[in-house]
């Protein structure tokens, strides 16, 4: 079976009602990164950081996967599909994708502040001050903040190098190391980019750009790949 690697960003969840980060009115226009998404912010003002992620987690319980997420599930009929997502939502899993790697953490999980291996699924949407891990330390969002290492990046690089087809959806390709994954793809591999306002195009040969939203562009590309692909 041919292997398809799909790198997704906030744009694939936009039509589900989750704001992207850098579009106009995106999350980073409403919040300063250094106030809510760094370890320093967590040390200085944990209440604000908890509130920021609590609100996003609460919203996640109110939204559903869209046609873009669902189309990727259909690709599994003929291909070995591995999704690498920068998103912290679980909409790929809710849609039914079976192989999803989260590069930047998961909103519905929390972890110990003293032992990063102690990761738990939070019940409900609210993480509170005083919620502790089994070693007695405060739980924090299971999110890779700016300035923190990206533990899954080596796995993502290895997977990218194994791709027979590479698909990039709804990411501004602003944030490294995720934005560099496409350069691990073997020479000659077809790369597709689906984004209605793509600004940074990866400098690779065999690039096809579909300037459409994920909800429209992904089902089209999936149909095309299923029709032509022997898997
Ligand atoms: N369909 C597809 N793409 C869309 C849609 C849509 N309906 N709407 C917007 N987009 C595109 C935008 O054109 C933009 O290129 O999605 C991209 C969103 O870019 P960002 O907001 O920068 O999100 P992302 O690339 O996922 O950010 C990367 O940065 O803030 C950190 O850790 C956070 O994982 C995040 C990382």
Summarize the structure.
The protein has 231 residues and is of the alpha/beta class. It is built from 9 helices and 9 strands.
| CATH fourth-tier homologous superfamily of the largest domain | TPP-binding domain
The rough form would be described as globular
The tally of beta strands, per DSSP, is 9
Largest beta sheet: what is the strand line-up?
A: 3-2-1-7-8-9
What is the rounded Rg?
A: 18 Å
Tell me the count of domains.
2
Helix and strand content put the structural class at alpha/beta
Could you name the ranges where pLDDT drops below 50 across 5 or more consecutive residues? none
CATH architecture of the largest domain: 3-Layer(aba) Sandwich
Give a verbal description of the structure.
This protein has 231 residues and is of the alpha/beta class. It folds into two domains: 1-18 and 66-104 and 150-231, TPP-binding domain (Rossmann fold, 3-Layer(aba) Sandwich); 20-62 and 109-143, SIR2/SIRT2 'Small Domain'. The chain has nine helices and nine strands. It has helices spanning 11-14, 27-30, 33-36, 39-44, 46-60, 67-74, 91-95, 153-161, 214-228; strands at 3-8, 80-85, 100-102, 105-112, 119-121, 139-143, 165-169, 191-194, 207-210. The protein has a six-stranded parallel beta sheet with strand order 3-2-1-7-8-9. Strands 5-4-6 form a three-stranded antiparallel beta sheet, covered by helices on one side. β4 and β5 (119-121) form a beta hairpin. The longest helix has 15 residues, at 46-60. Bound molecules: adenosine-5-diphosphoribose (APR). The site of adenosine-5-diphosphoribose has 23 residues, from α1.
